[in-house]
Each structure stands twice: as structure tokens, then as C-alpha cells.
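Hi support team,

I submitted a single chain yesterday and got back a structure, but I'm not sure I'm reading the C-alpha cell output correctly. Could someone confirm the output below corresponds to the sequence I sent? I've pasted both exactly as they appear in my results page.

Thanks,
R.
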Amino acid sequence: MAPVLRLGTRGSPLALAQAHQAVARLAAAHVELAAPGAIEIVPVRTSGDRITDRPLADIGGKALFTKEIEEALLDRRIDLAVHSLKDMETVLPQGLEIACCLPREDPRDALVALGSARRIADLAPGAVVGTSSVRRKAQLLAARPDLEIVPMRGNVGTRLQKLAAGECTATVLAAAGLNRLGRTDAAAALLDPADMLPAAGQGIIAIEARETDLRVRELLAAIDDEAASRAAAAERAVLAALGGTCRTPIAALATIAGSRLAIEAMVIELDGSAIWRAAREGPVIYMRAMGEDAGADLRARVRPGLIA
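Hi R., thanks for writing in. Yes, this is the structure output for that exact sequence:
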């Protein structure tokens, strides 16, 4: 049978695992999508997957993980796209929208280390830590200025292999990715957000659709997780207010308890020498306003020139 839906995704093991989660939820919610072959997964190789020897900030930023997939969506070669929300640009291409979010996985970062280190403080003096995330690098240096931070890109499996090969003594990965790949065992410790505030959207799978495609939007509305979507809206509002790029270390995390939302946001000097924080709490219905206010507060206080 011809597929009812064509679902675009990156081809990495983690991206495919996330795509299968989306398929399972859609199939459970809609009987017409439960038949074998009703949803076709269409892997799309992105520039971010092809270029792995340079930092993202030097070659175009996060859009390199979404550009080709979004082009396929606009060209109607696929009907929807599954992304890690933290990889999505703050401003989406005209005609596209985040139609739903799946339930959030653990948003924390995980320390993955050789030896017995269970905290950042446990790492040996001058330890080599591999990461290409400016957010993680800045927070690591804020806690431990003695650490040597070296670039390390690639999917989760590649980075674990590089660690095992001795290219570094530790790295920091998203707990959500490790959990979704069944590699929770690789984490030496989960890092408290007070010590390592996550990226905006970390742990959330977002599904993107065309604004005019009412059929797909209706199908996706049935699987939207309200808490994840509200947290996503608050955290992305911080990014929008800051207007930062992937060259600026920015972190944000919203938590929801009942009808209330609390959000913490942060901008950090690249070398970890200064940190600016903002926090807001209030009724969850004002999620975007709280995120915007926190972001505007930070933008007014950070060092001139830090945010492009």
C-alpha cells in the first residue's frame, strides 16, 4: 500500500529512534496509521551530518541539521519532519510550524568519563573534555577553568567511540539521547541543572509540518504533549528575545508543576569567566511572556558584543 504519511528525519541512530517513537504514537492514536507501511520513514542526509570536522558555529550553525529536511517538507517530498527541538532554528522557514511535541525525556546533560569520575569536580586537573557545544564548554570552564576542552562532533555512538579511543578523558552528552538509544549505562552521572543548565528544548522531540496542511496538523494534534509544548514555547521565547546564535553560550530550562511554570535562563562568556542568569515563575498560560521577559532581561545585562 502507498504510505499515508511520509516522515522525514536525519539518518543517525538517534534520529531514527526518535522517528520510530513518533510513528508509534501516531499509530496508537489513529487506526488508519496502524497498518504496516502506513507511515514511511524517509531519511534525509543533512549538511550537519556530512560535515563533521568543523564546529557548527563555523559552518552555518544548527540549521545544518534541519535545512535539507525542511526543504523536503516545503517541496512536499515528505509530509512531516521529526527533529530534536534543540537542533531547530529559533525562526522557522516561512510556511512551516512546530505542530506538536512528544513527551519530554530527561532534559539534563550526562557526564561520560573514563575512570572513576562521577562529577565535574572529580575530573583530574587539566583533564581533556571533548565537546563542540559552546554552552557545555562555557559551563565546564566556569566550574573548572583548568580543564582542556577539545572539539568533538559526531553522533552519540561516534563520540562514545572517540572517548573509548582516548581522544579525551570525558565528554558531556544529552541524557535524553543516551536513554533513547538504550545507552543509559554510559553515563557516569547526570548533571544537576544548577551545575549544567541544558540547551533550550533539550530532551523534546518536535514534529514540524506545513502550516497549510490541515490534515497532517489534525493528525499531529492528537499526539501533542501539552507540558512539553508549553515548556518548548517558554524556552524558545528566551532564544527569540536574545536573538543569539550558536556562537553564544545560551541555556534555558522550563519546568511545570500543575498550573505554574518556572523558567531559568543563562548567558555565559565563552571562557566561563562570567555568567548572567534570569528566572521567572508564574501561571503556565503566560509561558511565552515569561520566556520573553527572561530573555530581554539577559539581553539588557550581558556584555556588549556577546550576543550578535
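A quick pointer for reading it: The first strand starts at residue 5 and ends at 9. Let us know if anything else looks off.

Best,
Support desk
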